[in-house]
Design goal:
A two-stranded parallel sheet has the order 1-2. The protein has a two-stranded antiparallel ribbon with strand order 3-4. It is mainly alpha-helical. The chain is built from 17 helices and 4 strands.
């Protein structure tokens, strides 16, 4: 049971403080998911998804906060659950002093918890129904089921004493809250066409995402490159832990993977495959073997390999200090050149960088819209 006698500023402030951390944790999974499905992450979709996450965070903290003292909870003796539907209606009629024929008693509607608490529980879940219908295209049955399950999660959180943090339930498990929350979700479902009439519908959001997904952005490529770097580090670490091979083997083997994979996987590395892009010949067709080799040398081996090699060239007997200095300078110069080119490409709206122009390669999207999939399947059958 939500405590309406307390203030709501503390739970909401907690959500505001926690949300940036949640947003950062979810950023990469959301980007990868959307790039894999649509090839892009439009601003409107980003705002909708993050606002939904923020709403759920606010709802959760409104339910569990403020937290009482553990010793006080241990001393509670009241029954931790109520399974009588609409018992608050009888309590309101018998105890509030409300009389329908006496307007002077109407003020108790807004000063007593009997009706304010159910109203709050309904309003709290209203956005849930709106989001489910608008973004997730859920029908009313699914909205009712998910609204009930979310409410049940809240109630069980309280009944379990915040998953065992308290010796017993610190708030009441109330069947009325389940009904009110489910009603609120269904009300949000019904009001969605009115509340969001000025926003593009979900089909339009998908269409916009697919249109942007045809273009391979710098951010999309950066995610692919970062994933490839992490895969490379993981492979080298595994090789070192298992066999401790010579340094040149640890450099050559991951570097060779960036040549072999694109040749056998239609221009994809692990990172490119993750965000649904591939390396292609800018003049048309599949990437040639010499382009794959040159691309790996220019980017994957030089840009990443030099830095990893430099880590081993320390002035403690593992390698000459002057070699480390030369390599680090070359690495910094390479990254400086790449950074300048990336910024310039962003300003000019280009997707090809200097070494790609030199090698006559380009990154293309492999995302296919559902309509195109159906058309391709129909053409293949015919």
């Amino acid at each position: 049971m939500v405590n309406l006698l307390g203030r709501y500023d503390s739970p909401l402030l907690t959500a505001v403080i926690i949300f940036p951390m949640v947003a950062m944790v979810m950023a990469i999974p959301l980007l990868v998911h959307n790039y894999r499905r649509y090839g892009s992450m439009p601003l409107v979709r980003t705002v909708v998804v993050y606002s939904f996450m923020f709403y759920l965070l606010c709802a959760y903290f409104l339910v569990i906060l403020p937290l009482p003292d553990v010793d006080k909870v241990a001393a509670y003796t009241w029954k931790p659950y109520n399974l009588i539907p609409f018992d608050y209606v009888a309590a309101f009629i018998n105890e509030s002093g409300f009389r329908i024929a006496d307007p002077s008693t109407y003020k108790v509607l807004w000063t007593k918890m009997y009706l304010l608490e159910p109203l709050f529980n309904i309003v709290m879940m209203l956005p849930f129904g709106v989001y489910l219908r608008y973004y997730f295209k859920a029908g009313w049955r699914k909205v009712a089921l998910l609204g009930f399950l979310l409410s049940l999660f809240f109630e069980l959180t309280q009944l379990s004493g915040l998953y065992g943090a308290y010796p017993r339930a610190y708030r009441l498990f109330d069947v009325n809250d389940l009904m009110d929350n489910t009603t609120g979700a269904l009300l949000g479902y019904a009001l969605e066409p009115v509340l969001l009439r000025f926003l593009p519908d979900r089909d339009r959001l998908d269409e916009m995402a697919y249109q942007k997904g045809r273009r391979v952005t710098i951010l999309r490529r950066l995610i692919a490159f970062s994933a490839d770097v992490m895969f490379t580090i993981a492979i080298m670490a595994l090789m070192y832990l298992v066999a401790k091979p010579p340094l040149w083997v640890m450099i050559v083997v991951p570097g060779a993977a960036y040549i072999v994979l694109p040749l056998v996987w239609d221009g994809r590395t692990l990172g490119k495959g993750l965000v649904r892009i591939r390396l292609a010949d800018a003049r048309g067709g599949h990437i040639k073997w010499y382009q794959a080799v040159a691309h790996a040398v220019f980017v994957d081996v030089w840009m990443g390999g030099v830095a990893l090699l430099s880590m081993f060239c320390l002035p403690d007997g593992q390698g000459p200090a002057n070699l480390m200095a030369v390599m680090m300078m070359a690495e910094l110069a390479s990254y400086a050149l790449l950074t300048i080119d990336v910024i310039s490409a962003k300003i000019d709206g280009r997707t090809r960088l200097w070494y790609e122009k030199l090698l006559a390669t380009e990154n293309v999207s492999t995302v296919v819209e559902p309509d195109q999939v159906q058309e391709t399947a129909s053409a293949a059958q015919n």
